[in-house]
Amino acid sequence: MVRRLIQKPLKRSRLRLALGKSYYTAKRYLMWWFNSGIKFASKSNTPLLHEYHSHGTPIYRKLKDVDMHMQENKAVNLKIAINNLQYTTIFPGETFSYWKLIGKPTKRKGYKKGMVLKSGTVTAATGGGLCQLSNLIYWITIHTPLTVVERHRHGYDVFPDSSRTQPFGSGATCFYNYGDLMIRNDTPHTFQLHLSVGEQDLKGAWMCDTTPQYRYEIYESEHVMQSEYWGGYTRHNVIRRKKFSCSCDELLGDEFVVENHAFMMYSPFIEDKTSYVRTEYRRFDLKNLFFEESRNERLKHTKLA
């Protein structure tokens, strides 16, 4: 990955933000109403039986300066949204639209105030927490032959890696209605989304009308954390996947998935006393054009006999 100088985040006026939001919201509604040649997926009452890929993520996380009550509200919001997505079926040639199916999260529909990230800061908003659902759907999608036609990366890296189980940048943020997650079925097979909210976990799976032909391994490459001339830090990587044949486990290809860039909202040196995560860096030197590199050392506590 070629090193690029990243400009400091710009602070937009409230008027400009409001005008921009109104413009893009109206533009997205027009696309939905007039379709623009897109055939959108819809729900079906007939469940498909062959699992292509599944995954689960914990609903409740201990996050610094985040009230647990907001995460409890997130669980409520997830259940409401899932009712609109469950058994969404994508026939060949159709496109899944996250927001078109869910609709606008409002208090009238039962949505509560949950955690949202806005310009790198944690705040509360009605329907907060639905990014966890879009993250999950994106993650299971890149483990299938479905095509992601619209996905928005997180512009800020807010929390350190001490509890991260997936590569940085492997999720998809969402903001109604133009920050959508859209997935097209370019295969000859039918896919169906199955979702559930348990006591502790959010679970999702793509089901298919036939047994899977391929399996995918997702990995991170070209990961860089670098200091910028304006004093902040940015983070960059590339997500790729290896494609294998399910019949003989033969490697069929190594595919580019997405490139990520984000502003870091924490110091690159972190020390987690519970699992003792230590990260060492060589900082970027503007004169000598050295990249900042990181090396993680994790020392797990063990009980003495």
Report the total helices.
Answer: 4
Mean pLDDT: 85
Please tally the β strands and state the result. Answer: 16
Whole-number total of structural domains: 1
Radius of gyration based on Cα positions: 21 Å
Q: Which segments are poorly predicted (pLDDT under 50) over 5 or more consecutive residues?
A: 270-305
Amino-to-carboxy terminus distance: 47 Å
Which strand order does the major sheet show?
1-3-10-11-2
Structural class: alpha+beta
The level of helicity is 10-25%
Cα shape:
globular
- What share of the residues does DSSP label as strand, in percent? 25-35%
Please summarize the sheet with the most strands. Answer: 5 strands, antiparallel
Q: What is the string of SSEs from the N terminus onward?
A: HEEHEEHEEHEEEEEEEEEE
